[in-house]
Inverse folding.
């Protein structure tokens, strides 16, 4: 079964940077590999609901990226298909970026997100 | 303010049925974009419950069902169980924003 594990969260000061990783496993034996899927990042701020952060398409689409307006220009998503890892580089962090960050795999069918990680907490505070 | 509107909370007794609504607009649900539903239990990551309006992934019991009509969608849960307590989110795509969008989430309490 596919598993996604986020890492890299922690306490960071406003204006600084942080990079999160999403390591995938469980593709062994499947006809599809990590590189065949688009991967997305989401977040849930304290007391709030889920928010989409951005997405990176698969190799067929050249790994093109899309971002929510709230993070565009500050956050960058990348991937290393050889290591089955997706990254979220967060620059110029703001207090309002404090949240649990999740990665998820976009299914190949209906653009739902069929596998999610447990999340990693990012706290932006001075 | 979420693009998709859900009730903040619903509740029901064990064994009962509850329905959670998700109201959108002509740029998302009404434009024909698929609606998906997720369950998030305390301390865990979200879990896909329903995809493309009314399809259940493998392993999701048939107590969970979805529907869509016009600019709205709904999730129904029958035979409520204590372990169903958690937050439920609808999700679609908005062509005006060019973003994946969510409802604000609905907290389900099993009485």
């Amino acid at each position: 079964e596919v598993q996604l594990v986020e890492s890299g969260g922690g306490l960071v000061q406003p204006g600084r940077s942080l990079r999160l990783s999403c390591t995938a496993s469980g593709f062994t034996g499947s006809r599809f590999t990590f590189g065949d899927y688009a991967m997305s990042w989401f977040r849930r701020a304290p007391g709030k609901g889920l928010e989409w952060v951005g997405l990176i398409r698969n190799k067929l689409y050249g790994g093109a990226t899309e971002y929510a307006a709230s993070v565009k220009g500050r956050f960058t998503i990348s991937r290393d298909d050889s290591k089955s890892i997706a990254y979220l580089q967060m620059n110029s962090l703001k207090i309002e970026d404090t949240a649990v960050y999740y990665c998820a795999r976009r299914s190949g069918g209906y653009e739902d997100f069929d596998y999610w990680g447990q999340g990693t907490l990012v706290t932006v505070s001075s | 303010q979420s693009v998709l509107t859900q009730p903040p909370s619903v509740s029901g007794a064990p064994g009962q049925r509850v329905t959670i609504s998700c109201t959108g607009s002509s740029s998302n649900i009404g434009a024909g974009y698929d609606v998906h539903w997720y369950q998030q239990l305390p301390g865990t990551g979200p879990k896909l419950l329903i995809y493309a309006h009314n399809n259940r992934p493998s392993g999701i019991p048939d107590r969970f069902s979805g529907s869509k009509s016009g600019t709205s969608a709904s999730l129904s849960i029958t035979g409520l169980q204590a372990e169903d307590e958690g937050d439920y989110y609808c999700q679609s795509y908005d062509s005006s924003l060019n973003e994946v969008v969510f409802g604000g989430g609905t907290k389900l309490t099993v009485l």
User: Anything to note?
Assistant: The CA atoms of residues 25 and 60 of chain B lie 28 Å apart. Chain B touches chain A at residues 2, 34, 36, 38, 40, 44-48, 51-52, 55, 57, 87, 89, 91, 93, 97-105 (CB under 8 Å). The radius of gyration of chain B is 13 Å. The beta strands of chain B are 9-12, 18-23, 36-40, 47-50, 64-69, 72-77, 86-94, 99-102, 106-110.
